[in-house]
Design brief:
It is a single chain. The chain has 230 residues and is of the alpha/beta class. 34% of the residues lie in helices and 17% in strands. It is globular and about 40 Å long. Helix 7 links the parallel strand 6 (131-137) and strand 7 (168-175). It has one domain: Rossmann fold (3-Layer(aba) Sandwich). Helix 1 (14-25) crosses helix 8 (212-228). The termini are close together. The longest helix has 18 residues, at 140-157.
Length: 230
Amino acid sequence: MIVSVINHKGGTAKTTTSAYFALIASATQDTLVIDLDGLMCLTTFFGIAHKYNIIDSLLTGKLQTVNISDRLHICPGSKKVDRFDKLFSEMYGSELLLKEMLAEAPYPTIIIDTAPALSTATANAIFAADVLVIPYEHSQWESDGVKSVLSELEAVTKSSLRKNYAARVYILPVMAGIMDRFTPPHIEGVPILPAIPNGKPSQTLNGIKRNHIYKAYEKAWGMICTENLK
């Protein structure tokens, strides 16, 4: 199962969500996390410094990863992701490079963190995914942002590349305030995952399971697995 975490806006907990999902999934099976953001926040979180990265992998067509732990691996990010369109402009079907590269990847679970933009790099994450998760913070601006993402996804279904897109979409509410006051946006046909209290993950892996945020993400991840791993 490939899960891409997307949102046009920055600061919506995409990287935090990717990190928690990766840690939770890797507790039971081999998991790959891909940093497809030029800021490389996910790579930094896991303390990875490596000469090979996601851009090198896509240019060569060969997935290159680094071990974080026995079951968790990462394809590190690169600042070159911000120049994705220029780097791959002459390659036909550049929106499908990641999907093709991951077709034979030996990982039961792959998590993809993305940049806060609808670029060709993000399109790669969309087409590669079985599941798309849109983190959402409570505000009218954010609600409009989520609807904008969903509008773009609808456009994908009408494009010439629609046969390559088959992801199930979820909204993930991330709370900045009191959870029982939160009313998520109602968008017909789009399921809403259990709400997450706002906060950043611990910078060490030790003891993270005792974190209440981890447990909330665990519940959301459980819903995704239950509905998509039948």
